[in-house]
Amino acid sequence: QTRAMVLQLWSTQSNVGPAVFWLLLFLLKHPPVMAAVQAEMEKLFRNRRLATRPICEILNQDVLDSTPIFDSALNETLRLTAAPFISREVLQDMALRLTAGREYHLR
After folding, report:
1. Which residues does residue 97 pair with via DSSP β-bridges, in sequence order?
2. Domain locations in the chain?
3. What pTM value is reported for the model?
């Protein structure tokens, strides 16, 4: 159980902070997306009267499933910022052809 708690602490401290930073940065750089996320959250809180309830009652799967715009923004943020940490290995020689006509030979 101690190991699980340490892993949970590590994952929240090493992933959530950067994810929130990048999400906020991208939202600030793209005002239409920020407005869409804000409207979605305002509608969610208004419809469910979530502002007066404890956080443990607010975050359930039903609430998370009702935020597709926020989900998309977060997923795109993670896709754009996590890519440098994902490594690939070429197992056999191949040619990578781009739509513009360029071709790269990978070894």
Report:
1. 103
2. 15-83
3. 0.60
CB burial of 7-45 (b: ≥16 within 10 Å; e: otherwise) equals eeeeeeeeeeeeeeebbeebbeeeeebeebbeebeeeee
Amino acid identity at 75? N
Tokens of 5: 């708690």
Torsion angles phi and psi, residue 10, rounded to 5: -60, -45
Terminal alpha carbon distance of the chain: 44
| Of 31, 42, 44, 45, residue with least CA distance to 73 | 31
Measure the CA–CA gap between 74 and 88, rounded to whole angstroms: 23
Identify the bridge partners of residue 106 per DSSP, sorted by sequence position: 94
pLDDT tens digits along 31-61: 999 999 999 988 887 776 656 667 667 777 7
